[in-house]
């Protein structure tokens, strides 16, 4: 995720202290629930032995009721997978470098963006360098040329739509499903891009962030797109006015939240269109209900922390994922990048936004699940999906990716 | 032997590789460096609006930083004042209120007499004419602007310099690249064609598909003898004698990478205490030194991989600080110490920014830094960003 090393050291030190404090509260948080291992399935990615990880690179395609995942060796090869829940079939469609006819000097480290779908069943995503050589080598022979917008369709294959900015990754994208307009955010300079693939028209709206690039873009049901500035204020690309609108106030944060967490903004979202709410999680571990409005920014409601942290800092937990069940409850997995609310464990949490109650449903050692991503991914049967990885040795960064299928309301056929 | 390699040599090699790799995550963050939030949309704080705040002109007067901006096409630029000791933006002035229809204040600020400063503007694409401005910081840090008119009919002001006495201005017009003089007391303008590209040169430039932004002289400087130096298309350096009103061209060209002479353009100058003139060439980002006594140019090399060398200023430590590189990619801060380490690439600066609403401080990393100015005492270096939302970045210089 290109967190800087200095931050890693700092975060690791903070978490070691926090873990010692949190250990005593573990049993008070775990509560009984009806969710068992039968509600969860771990699905492996075939035909890619050196697969290392998945990032934000997951999305749901309503037209085909399929889940799409970009799986990387975190160096120069990315497999594009499709999971068909009805057939319980995980399939490798091919590798990005081959399908997009990329030359060696156009290497891509990963897909960091989510995978978004158009009504015709095509999916869109963007590519990312994902390594230090991206940010520092630039013009050098093995440096990074830049990230691409890409389109894939099961019938027509992969189409490379072109580069966003020279030397820059495209960390996240989203789509206006009505117009097909794509929105993108670049790394490391955090430029907001608006791209019309139908006209091949790309516009750069400029730099919006500070020393760390907030990862998440999301759209509302009118096709407006949201990001955050360095003060963790929502920034809306308003489709009708074709301009950026900045919120007056910052999103809620716990007192004492460090600036490094403020500038990273939102890490996950899930939409409840029926009730007009987009749920957000910040890097400072706040759960927020955002009520978008067609014109202007809209109301924000603070739903508290993502979990009760006891004596540990409330802004500490790291949550790079969020899904909403058919039951209206929110589900997320806490942990990753060295941050764990329980010692060396990721936890699956259920939150009932009606009551604000948060319950740890399952706990996983990091050897079984070290981190999960994925926002707003639910299939027709109410199954929720997370793009996860595990670290079997619990050492270093030797991870392997897998897909989580989770249904909070019924057992999953295995 | 295999075990020796696997168990001893390989780990040793790994360890030796580790520290330089980790060093990539360091940034230039000296103690007491800070950023000032100058631009922020939709705020109760005094801030510059989006797309009108690319900081393209800077000067420091005591504790006060005076900045001029460049706006996106169709929008008007700003002037602003910030305080170093207060670490905040104090005053802003929309140039549209004084001189409508301008796009850019990119000439920097030239010093006249009585704390008066001078700058030139560029007009919008469909109305290029630029104005000479007289600017001063008045009571209560109010920015006072006086319009001195259009020195070259139909042309913008691409470059501006004042003489040592603060009585005369020298400039380059845009897009024709004509040299002009402006006598402040009499408002007399003289325009010269000697350094403007000729038809043959323009034909050659057309083959390279480059515009006036690339080949016109972006910075002028005056030596201790009074000669004014600048560059012309074709990688040449000229000297203008204000007393005789004559031009001559130096025998030594600007440093160039073979085949890229067409990109030769001085875009920054700084005069050393010994009177030597240090310049930055946009073409391939070389730093060079011009000895006014011999009129020879010496190529000092490149501080970083990329083209551009947009700003230069001497600090009180005797080092020459500069901004190299730029879009695409991003600029690096460097210093050149001819008595010490030579070039030192400081990379990207990353300074703490504290402002109402972000009292805990956030880190601001500079990518597109294009302006740099030293305080009068050389204690502070002030850098301005060239972004959609640009901020000031300031660091102290040692003795």
Automatic annotation (TrEMBL), chain A:
It comes from the Bacteria. SUPFAM superfamilies: NHL repeat. This is SMP-30/gluconolactonase/LRE family protein.
TrEMBL record, chain B:
Residues 1-23 form the signal peptide. It comes from Adhaeribacter swui. Keywords: Signal. This is Uncharacterized protein.
């Amino acid at each position: 995720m290109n967190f800087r090393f200095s931050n890693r050291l700092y975060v690791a030190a903070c978490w070691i202290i926090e873990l010692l404090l949190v250990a005593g509260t573990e049993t008070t948080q775990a509560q009984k629930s009806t969710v068992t291992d039968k509600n969860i399935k771990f699905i492996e990615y075939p035909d890619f032995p050196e697969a290392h990880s998945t990032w934000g690179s997951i999305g749901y395609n309503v037209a085909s009721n399929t889940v799409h995942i970009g799986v990387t060796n975190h160096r120069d090869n990315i497999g594009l997978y499709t999971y068909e829940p009805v057939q319980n079939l995980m399939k490798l469609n091919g590798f990005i470098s081959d399908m997009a006819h990329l030359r060696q000097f156009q290497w891509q480290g990963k897909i960091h963006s989510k995978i978004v779908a158009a009504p015709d069943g095509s999916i869109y995503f963007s590519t990312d360098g994902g390594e230090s050589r991206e940010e520092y080598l630039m013009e050098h022979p093995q440096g990074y040329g830049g990230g691409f917008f890409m389109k894939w369709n099961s019938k027509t294959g992969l189409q490379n739509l072109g580069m966003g900015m020279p030397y820059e990754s495209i960390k996240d994208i989203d789509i206006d499903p009505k117009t097909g307009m794509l929105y993108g955010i670049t790394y490391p300079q955090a430029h907001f891009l608006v791209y019309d693939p139908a006209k091949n028209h790309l516009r750069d709206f400029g730099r919006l962030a500070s020393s760390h690039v907030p990862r998440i873009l999301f759209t509302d049901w009118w096709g407006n797109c949201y990001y955050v500035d360095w003060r963790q204020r929502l920034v809306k690309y308003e489709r009708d006015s074709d301009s950026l609108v900045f919120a007056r106030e910052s999103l809620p944060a716990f007192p004492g939240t460090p600036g490094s967490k403020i500038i990273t903004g939102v890490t996950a979202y899930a939409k409840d269109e029926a009730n007009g709410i987009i749920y957000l999680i910040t890097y400072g571990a706040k759960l927020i209900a955002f009520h978008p409005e067609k014109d202007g920014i809209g109301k924000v409601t603070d739903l508290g922390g993502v979990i009760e942290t006891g004596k540990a800092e409330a802004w500490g937990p790291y949550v790079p994922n969020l899904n909403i069940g058919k039951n209206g409850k929110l589900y997320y997995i806490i942990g990753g990048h060295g941050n764990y609310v329980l010692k060396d464990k990721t936890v699956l949490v259920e939150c009932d936004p009606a009551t604000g109650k948060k319950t740890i449903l399952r706990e996983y050692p990091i050897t079984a699940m070290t981190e999960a991503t994925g926002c707003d991914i639910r299939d027709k049967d109410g199954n929720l999906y997370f793009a996860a990885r595990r670290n079997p040795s619990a050492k270093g960064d030797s991870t392997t990716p897998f897909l989580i299928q989770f249904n909070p309301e019924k057992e999953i056929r295995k | 032997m295999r075990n020796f390699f696997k168990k001893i040599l390989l780990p040793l090699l790994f360890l030796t590789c580790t520290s330089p790799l980790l060093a990539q995550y360091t940034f230039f963050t000296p103690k007491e460096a800070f950023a000032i939030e100058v631009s922020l949309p939709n705020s109760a704080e005094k801030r510059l609006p989006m797309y009108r705040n690319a900081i393209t002109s800077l000067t420091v007067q005591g504790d006060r930083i005076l900045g001029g901006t460049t706006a996106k096409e169709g929008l008007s630029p700003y002037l602003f004042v910030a305080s170093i000791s207060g670490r905040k933006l104090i005053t802003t002035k929309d140039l549209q209120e004084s001189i409508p229809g301008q796009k850019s204040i990119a000439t920097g600020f030239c010093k006249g007499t009585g704390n008066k400063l001078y700058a030139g503007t560029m007009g919008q694409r469909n109305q290029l004419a630029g104005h000479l401005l007289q600017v001063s910081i008045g009571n209560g840090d109010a920015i006072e602007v006086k319009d001195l008119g259009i020195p070259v009919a139909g042309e913008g002001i691409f470059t501006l310099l004042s003489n040592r006495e603060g009585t005369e201005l020298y400039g380059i017009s845009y897009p024709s690249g004509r040299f002009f003089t402006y006598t402040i007391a009499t408002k007399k303008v003289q325009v010269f064609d000697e350094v403007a590209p000729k038809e043959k040169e323009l034909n050659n430039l057309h083959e390279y598909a480059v515009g006036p932004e690339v080949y016109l002289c972006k910075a002028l400087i005056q030596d201790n003898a009074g000669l004014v130096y600048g560059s012309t298309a074709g990688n040449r350096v000229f000297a203008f004698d204000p007393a005789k009103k004559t031009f001559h061209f130096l025998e030594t060209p600007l440093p160039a990478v073979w085949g890229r002479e067409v990109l030769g353009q001085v875009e920054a100058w700084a005069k050393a205490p010994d009177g030597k003139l240090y310049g930055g060439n946009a073409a391939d980002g070389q730093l060079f030194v011009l000895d006014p006594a011999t009129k020879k140019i010496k190529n000092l090399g490149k501080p970083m991989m990329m083209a551009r060398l947009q700003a230069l200023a001497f600090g009180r430590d005797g080092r020459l600080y500069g901004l190299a590189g730029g879009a695409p990619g991003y600029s690096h801060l460097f210093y050149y110490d001819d008595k010490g380490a030579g070039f030192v690439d400081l990379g990207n600066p990353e300074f703490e920014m504290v402002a109402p609403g972000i009292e805990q401080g956030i880190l601001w990393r500079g990518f597109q830094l294009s302006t740099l100015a030293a305080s009068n005492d050389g204690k502070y270096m002030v850098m301005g960003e060239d972004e959609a939302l640009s901020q000031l970045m300031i660091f102290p210089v040692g003795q």
